[in-house]
Structures are given as structure tokens and as C-alpha cells.
Amino acid sequence: MLQIRAARKVFYKGQPDEKVALNGLDLTLANGDFAVVIGSNGAGKSSMLNAISGALRLDSGSIVINGDDITARPVHKRAAHIARVFQDPMLGTAASMTVAENMLLAELRGRRRSLRHGLNAKRLADYRERLSILGLGLEDRLDTRVELLSGGQRQSLSLIMAVGGSPDLLLLDEHTAALDPRTADIVMNATVRAVEALKLTTLMVTHNMQHAVDFGNRVIMLDAGRIRLEIGGEDKANVTVADLIGHFATKTDRMMLAS
Hints:
Elements: E1 2-11, E2 19-29, E3 34-38, H1 45-53, E4 60-65, E5 68-69, H2 75-78, E6 82-85, H3 99-107, H4 121-132, H5 151-164, E7 169-173, H6 181-198, E8 201-205, H7 209-214, E9 218-223, E10 226-232, H8 233-238, H9 241-246, H10 251-258
Helix pairs in contact: 3-5, 5-6
């Protein structure tokens, strides 16, 4: 489903503060893979997601999704194939629009729009059903402006919007990091249900080592813009938080993650 080949990106090239973000990164995901991506700050995690989504242009290398080379394709032309949930709950929704209007925009992402794509009774019933699985009461707030929702409610809505169009690839960019523990659990459980029900190919970046242990069928550690460690199959089923923390290069990272 996803093939990244020899992806390279250098910021401030030729300047004193030159930074290699991606250094010949190679990654392949099969259809239905749920890969959890870990790594220290600056390891290349966000750069990788930005390159896949089109927000970051590679200096060299290629990105292919479902057999389609999208390396040179802009963000809006990738939208029908890629959905992304950000760490900041404010980024995935339009604040001044209602819950229902936001869901309609997400449903029509990447499609040609016309007057027939309105908020009819059938759509509203579908939105209520999809939101009810969160257990946050959003199914009864379809006419509420999103700016009036809590951060957790807004992030949960972002997730439902992201998976609603059954994208080829779902990118989760530390999507529970800004939430309180209870809401993070709700969003994570909803994520797993959606990924499993729709058989979504998923890349989830996280600093939560327990999430890396508990979720997905692969763990990928990035370091200096390339894959340093990959764990899958039976090894993934048996890996522990301590195992993962032990692979981090610096004592500071290991202490921070263990706390």
C-alpha cells in the first residue's frame, strides 16, 4: 500500500545549521498494516509524515501509494487517498462550522462537489451513528459549532472525519498527546475500532511507549532520518516498554520515556 524509496530531505542546505531530516529512508507497508513509529525528537518522524501527505517536498526519492507514484503531487491531490489526524485538536476541523458541516467537508474531500452534496436526512443519520461510538454525546450536537467543543471532543471528531472516507492510508501524528488520559483512551480505542473495521493501512507516530507496545502489528524506530529498528510478528507481540526504551540512544531520552 505504501512504498517510500531512498527519501531524502535536507533543511538549510549548505548553511551552518544544515539539518538532514530524511536520510535515504526506505519503508514499505502492506495493505492493512498498522505501524507505530517511535524515535527521539528530530529523528524524522514528522518529516516522514509531511513528505507522505505532500506538505514537504522531497529533495530526492519516491513515494508510491497503492501503485500510484505521488511524489510530485500536491497536498490537495493526495487528499482522496490520505487522511491525517494531528496532535493539535484545532488543526483537523473548521472552528466556525458545525459538527455536521465538518463531517460533510471530510466526506467530500478530494471529490467534485455539487449542490446535491447537502446535509440531507440520510447523511445526518449516518453522522449520528458514526459519532455515537465515541460515547461523548457528539451525535446530539450536530448543529454545534466546533469551536464550542472541548479539545478531546474536537480530536475525536477529527478522527471520525479522517476515517469516514475509508482512505488508502491513515496518518496519526501523536493524535492523543494533547489529551487528558481518559479522553486519550477514548480516542485510542475508537482509533483501533476504526482501523480494524475498515482494514486501514495506518502509520501512527507516538512518544507513548505503552501505545507502541499495545497497538499495531509493527514498531518502527527512526533515528537521524532513517529506520534504525523494526519489530514485527511474534517479536512485536512479545516486546515490552522496557525493551523499546532500551533502544533509545541517549540517557536523557530513556529517562524521559520511563517517567
